[in-house]
Specification:
The chain is 49% helix and 9% strand. It has 638 residues and is an alpha/beta fold. The N and C termini lie far apart (65 Å). The model is unreliable at 1-11 (pLDDT under 50).
């Protein structure tokens, strides 16, 4: 698919610094934002952990290869260690390579005259009308001259009720509001969010004078009043920037966010690091786009449900870049049920996996040939990472219950002493890095948060398998906020024991209960079956006993994997046990006389200062610290 930029464009206006002013940071600088820590200390630790992982895996490989006693269990143990450990390497590499540029300042555009024209696009498809109207009302009353921006509702659900509601708002107090639809939705992929946006860019806007910029709001994302004035200065200052992207803040997060629905790893770790490494980040909702730049790219990519992810890779290919705006500028909504959360994440991860389709020749594929192979391999790596997680955590109880030696103690080149000391050094470094990353994110993205969705990795793989084999997946065509999506209902129908069991299985709760019990039982069994020499008074026999334990269940990396597996399995179990309450829109927003929602001071403050306990839930990081100390002393005593 390709589109030419329209001939009729809003002329780009020149602005100087007198039109733009800078605001102070919303949160005072903390110790973890110190430049010495950010530019030198943390990158050095990340680089050391990365290289230590490479060296450790190489040493383990050579030790097994040169051992006269190697078994298949040893190779499986090495695979489990590598498959989980390698998932941290992307974050380690970005932390080590991140530039010393400071984050983008908070800017505002002043004035009322000669401002650039902007279109606010609100794509929707079946979401509850009251949710859409809240977004529309907030968009129509932003702090920007109504003569300089329009709000275009792009309804792929072809809802007559929504059309009438929009017409009523337009006639009452929003003349800059418009409703557009592509008609009834046929059974084809072209009716997706990306194609809906492209229809607005190349069909709707071509019939009128196109604006210089446009922004996108998901149907359930309420903008702040200063969204346009906060994002426009960044693109006005930098002509090479095509996107000013904003973070997503969720107004209805339950206390403690037990399902990690805020996506803190992406929002607080991956995206900022990716931007500091010179990469582009284009999150669709709440972002401001330079229309000419997106037109030159051919619009939004339609080969994947994650059009913003693919767009992020396209921008540098055309010489454009993106800017991450630090302000709180939009208030989004998370699914209010376990099934709804899983449906949303399945759709996200399906979009990641759809990058493997970049090599296909089809009308949907607008990806340049030079980028297709890279996207394909990124999609393959993502699928491989899911397989690695699922296999590693499923292997763990088998390894523990086998009673076999998992680490070679005799090797022609490398003994247990070298392997164990390298293992301890790596674990200390990776835990130190993860905790420092935790602090750097404002104590939001918990340690090892890149594994936060590992508890339903098996369900993800099954979903991908069904999709790519052409199975019937009715839900993948529906946005996760749609009221028609059966997986987004807050109250599951559990009228019979069979329905209850089915619900627990479909939401991966039953799978995690089984895996948790098996993993804990396997560790208990391995400890109870530990071969202990009866002559404990003999130092030589004591060393032999410790060596035997280290080569089995007491191997530090296997204890580390056991901890990660137990923590991940507990996520859905704790969620169903606690049944957290989700704040509703009524209590989260204040209402004007025109029923326009605006964030309450309490909600805004809670979003700004949200954090997790620095020492972990129940202060259990102290136990991890003690465990690492005991393991270190034991290994050093060998």
């Amino acid at each position: 698919m390709s589109h030419e930029a329209p001939d009729q464009r809003e002329p780009q206006m020149a602005f100087d610094d007198r039109d733009i002013y800078e605001l102070p940071p919303e949160i005072p600088p903390q110790w973890f934002s110190n430049q010495i820590f950010v530019d030198h200390v943390h990158p050095a630790i990340a680089k050391a952990a990365l290289w230590c992982h490479y060296i450790y895996c190489t040493v383990r490989f050579i030790s097994i290869l040169t051992s006269s006693e190697w078994t298949g269990w040893m190779w499986l143990m090495l695979f489990a260690e590598w498959a989980v450990g390698v998932q941290a390497n992307a974050c380690l590499s970005m932390t080590a390579k991140a530039s010393t540029r400071r984050i983008q300042p908070r800017l505002r555009l002043r004035g009322e005259e000669n401002l650039p024209r902007v279109d606010v696009l609100v794509p929707c498809c079946g979401e509850p009308i009251e949710v859409i109207l809240d977004t529309v009302r907030a968009a129509c009353t932003m702090d920007y001259p109504s003569s300089r921006y329009r709000v275009l509702v792009l309804d792929d659900g072809d809802s007559g009720a929504l059309c009438r509601a929009i017409a009523q708002l337009r006639s009452q107090w929003a003349p800059h509001l418009q409703y557009h639809t592509r008609g009834k939705k046929p059974a084809q992929r072209g009716f997706g969010k990306a194609a809906n946006l492209n229809h607005a860019l190349f069909t709707v806007q071509e019939t009128i004078s196109p604006p210089e910029f446009f922004t996108i709001l998901d149907a359930d994302c309420i903008p702040s009043t200063d969204l346009l004035r906060a994002t426009l200065p960044h693109l006005l200052r930098d002509p090479q920037a095509a996107v000013a992207t904003t973070r997503q803040y969720y107004y209805n997060l339950p206390m403690g966010d037990p399902l990690h629905q805020a996506a803190d790893y992406l929002q607080s770790v991956f995206f900022p690091l990716h931007a500091l490494c010179g990469g582009s980040v284009a999150s669709t909702t709440g972002s401001l786009y330079r229309r000419l730049s997106i037109s030159q790219l051919g619009g939004f990519p339609t080969i994947s449900y994650d059009e913003d992810l693919v767009l992020s890779y396209l921008l540098p290919t055309y010489g454009y870049r993106s800017i991450v705006v630090p302000d709180i500028l939009q208030f989004c909504r998370v699914p209010t049920s376990l099934a709804g959360h899983i449906a949303q994440r399945k759709r996200w991860y399906l979009g990641f996996a759809q990058q493997t389709m970049a090599l296909q020749s089809s009308p949907d594929n607008m990806i340049p040939q030079s980028l297709r192979r890279r996207l394909f391999w990124q999609g393959m790596c993502f699928v491989a990472s899911l397989v690695g997680r699922a296999v590693s955590f499923a292997l763990l109880p088998c390894l523990l219950a086998s009673g076999q030696q998992l680490v070679p103690t005799t090797s022609a080149l490398i003994g247990l002493r070298v392997q164990s000391r390298l293992a301890i050094i790596y674990l200390v470094l990776i835990w130190l890095h993860e905790w420092l990353q935790f602090a750097r994110s404002g104590f939001r993205a918990a340690p090892f948060s890149y594994l936060e969705d590992s508890w339903f990795t098996g369900a993800q793989l099954l979903y991908l398998f069904q999709f790519f084999l052409g199975g019937t997946l009715a839900q993948h065509a529906l946005v996760t906020g749609s009221s028609k999506n059966p997986l987004n209902r807050s109250k599951a129908r559990l009228s019979s024991p069979w329905n209850c069991i089915r619900y627990l299985w479909e939401t991966s709760v039953l799978y995690n209960v089984i895996l948790l019990l098996v993993t804990v039982a396997a560790m208990v069994y391995a400890i109870s079956m530990s071969p202990i020499d009866e002559n404990q008074g003999d130092d030589h026999n004591l060393v032999n006993s410790v060596t035997s334990l280290l080569s089995r269940w007491a191997w530090p990396p296997i204890c580390h994997l056991w901890y990660l597996s137990v923590v991940n399995c507990c996520v859905p179990i704790v969620y169903l046990s606690v049944r957290p309450a989700y704040p509703d829109r009524i209590t989260s927003f204040r209402r004007t006389s025109a029923d326009v929602p605006s964030p309450s001071p309490e909600m805004y403050k809670s979003l700004l200062h949200r954090f997790r306990c620095p020492l972990g839930c129940g202060y259990h990081f102290l136990l991890v610290l003690v465990g690492l100390a005991v393991a270190s002393l034991t290994v050093l005593a060998l």
